[in-house]
Design brief:
two-stranded antiparallel sheet; Spore Coat Polysaccharide Biosynthesis Protein SpsA, Chain A; single chain
């Protein structure tokens, strides 16, 4: 099975500025340690791991950090010309639409410790888990409707039928139904473009979740295409920091039954998660740990001396 990852520099145009990019992590060092560990764990189990990126992303991840992707497509500069950097999910839509054979797209903050199951490999469409009635989707649609733009009928229809938003978390996504994936990625890109010019993070919050995750789920439901979930549970059960939660800890000692960690959202800023990340990378892949320190500047990642944690984190 082909694995795909997407790295977009969000219009950062110099390598020196990109090296400072945190992308939601506690520090820039942890950002790139996360990319390294995600890629390296995937390469432990898969021989075909592709990176879709832009020119400066390729320069940093491939040329300077030397991450062992088996193929690289440098297309995002052209494909996302004119796209606001707040619409970060569009880079993933580009990657989805480029695929001509079955694949699994894996976010750069996802870490596996065993291969995906046969049921995931054979699925028409796969996703991480369902998201049932999340507030962010209600906020996103209400804000989008204020712009008086056309909203995909699939989203409106499913909201009417279910009387609540249903979406699919796409920490992982893909499958064998390439025709559907290409249609969906094209529709989602067109939807996002309606809001390029006059939207901001303030007047269109959570919009990425709407055009990436709720639209995909709604289209699949309307077409009666089954979605195979990695977790057959609602991830609300796993959105608080807990040492036993598979979505919010890094554990490669074998007692994580899922063999899967997704440090989504604020979990990327958790002190203990970042310490574990640094420890695992230094222990298992010392070459890459040292390389990140050489490229970004040396820093002791195993001490709790970073900036104060955001209030309410613990």
């Amino acid at each position: 099975m082909k694995i795909v990852q997407t790295f977009w520099s969000c219009k950062i145009d110099t390598i020196q500025e990109l090296k400072k990019f945190r992308s939601g992590w506690l520090t820039n060092h942890h950002h790139y340690m996360g990319w390294a560990l995600s890629c390296l764990q995937l390469r432990n189990f898969y021989n075909d791991v592709e990176l879709v990126t832009d020119k400066v992303g390729k320069q940093l991840l491939i040329d300077e950090l030397g991450l062992p992707y088996t193929s690289v497509k440098v297309v995002l500069d052209e494909k996302l010309e004119g796209c606001p950097n707040r619409f970060w999910a569009t880079s993933k839509l580009v990657a989805y639409g480029l695929q001509d054979s079955p694949f699994i797209h894996v976010d750069g903050d996802v870490f596996i410790s065993k291969p995906f199951s046969q049921s995931i490999h054979e699925s028409e469409i796969l996703s991480q888990n369902i998201e049932d009635d999340y507030t962010c989707y209600r906020i996103a649609l209400d804000a989008a409707l204020d712009f008086k733009r056309e909203i995909p009928t699939e989203i409106l229809s499913q909201r009417s039928i279910n009387n609540k938003p249903l979406a699919s978390c796409m920490g992982i996504f893909g499958g064998n139904n390439i025709e559907f994936i290409k249609d969906y990625s094209s529709r989602a890109m067109d939807f996002s473009k309606e809001f390029y010019s006059d939207s901001t993070d303030e007047n269109l919050p959570f919009f990425n979740t709407l055009f990436e995750q709720e639209l995909m789920h709604s289209m699949a439901d309307i077409k009666k295409i089954p979605i195979q979930y990695f977790f057959e549970i609602d991830s609300k059960k796993y959105n608080k920091f807990n040492f036993d939660d598979p979505l919010s800890k890094i554990n490669f000692r074998g007692n994580n039954q899922y063999g899967f960690v997704h440090l989504g959202g604020y979990h990327k800023r958790e002190y203990l998660n970042c310490l574990k990340l640094a420890f695992v990378l230094r222990t298992r892949y010392q070459k890459y740990y040292k390389r990140i320190n050489q490229v970004l500047g040396k820093r002791n990642h195993l001490k709790l001396y970073f900036e104060p944690a955001p209030s309410g984190m613990f």
